[in-house]
Amino acid sequence: MKALIERFKQDEDGATAIEYGLIAALIAVAIIAGVRAVGTQLNANFTTIETSLQ
């Protein structure tokens, strides 16, 4: 039983999976922020074009 507990304490697979999950979440947040910034700028450009055409 003691060997099983020691092996469980030394197993780092779960920690690695959590780290990859955190990295994926961080990348997703960066992508969302980038898309929102581009979307806001595009909306402003189209509003300017619409105003010019009227």
Mean pLDDT across residues = 88
**Coarse shape:** rod-shaped
Q: H/E element string? A: HH
The overall strand count is 0
Share in β-strands: under 5%
Head-to-tail CA distance between termini: 79 Å
- The helical percent reads over 70%
Major beta sheet summary: none
Task: Specify Rg, calculated over alpha carbons.
Answer: 24 Å
Decide which structural class fits the backbone.
mainly alpha
Low-confidence parts, pLDDT < 50 over ≥5 residues? none
How many helices does DSSP assign? 2
Architecture overview:
- The chain is rod-shaped and about 80 Å long.
- It has 54 residues and is mainly α.
- It has two helices and no strands.
- Helices cover 93% and strands 0% of the residues.
- It has helices spanning 2-10, 13-53.
- The N and C termini lie far apart (79 Å).
Write the layout of secondary structure elements.
Elements: H1 2-10, H2 13-53
Short recap of the structure:
93% of the residues lie in helices and 0% in strands. It is mostly helical and 54 residues long.
Features:
54 residues, mainly alpha, rod-shaped
